[in-house]
Amino acid sequence: LTSVTIPDSVTTIGEWAFYYCISLTSVTIPDSVTMIEHSTFIFCYSLTSVDIPDSVTSIGNNAFQDCSSLTSVTIPDSVTEIGYFTFANCENLNTVYCKAINPPTTIEDNNGYWYGFAMQDESGNICNIDCTIYVYAECVEAYKNAEGWSEYADAIVGYEF
pLDDT (tens digit, 9 = 90+) per residue, 26-76? Predict the structure, then answer.
């Protein structure tokens, strides 16, 4: 499986739906989808980019974890909640466009961490992925001060979409 187009009849992409689809390079998500559940695309090592439609309001825990070829992602303004480790270990993720005016709520793990854009270094330490997070210019300070997002304050940059 190298590419998939999710049918318009789908409203939720379920847990583990594309777990370990290591050859999946692209996915087309229709406007009918409102939720991407936890671990949906975990370990899809070949996935290079994803455009999440404006209909999605929630992205679950670990949804894109370990998608190591992922280089960019667009999070639409409809997203109000992002789970923990959502883009963790996406070491080549360098560009994130987050179009939400209000920073999406970040869901923490049982230890109180979000780690939305984090990875483990060679020593096993958690560090931030070297990516730029583009948000509306007038929202930069809100993101830099928001729970979860504040961990990436140095990476948050104003942008005009």
Answer: 999 999 999 999 999 999 999 997 889 999 999 999 999 999 999 999 999
Structure tokens, 74? 């667009």
User: 96: which residues sit within 8 A by CB, 6+ positions away?
Assistant: 72, 73, 74, 75, 87, 117, 131, 132, 133, 134
Nearest to 19 by CA among 33, 35, 38, 5: 38
d(CA 37, CA 6): 14
| CA-atom Rg of the chain in angstroms | 15
Find out whether 47 and 66 touch, Cβ atoms under 8 Å. no
For 38, the token pair is 């936890």
Compute φ and ψ for 72, nearest 5 degrees: -150, 155
Which of 23, 44, 45, 36 lies closest to 63 in space, CA to CA?
36
**Within 13 A of 11's CA, how many CA atoms are on the CB side?**
0
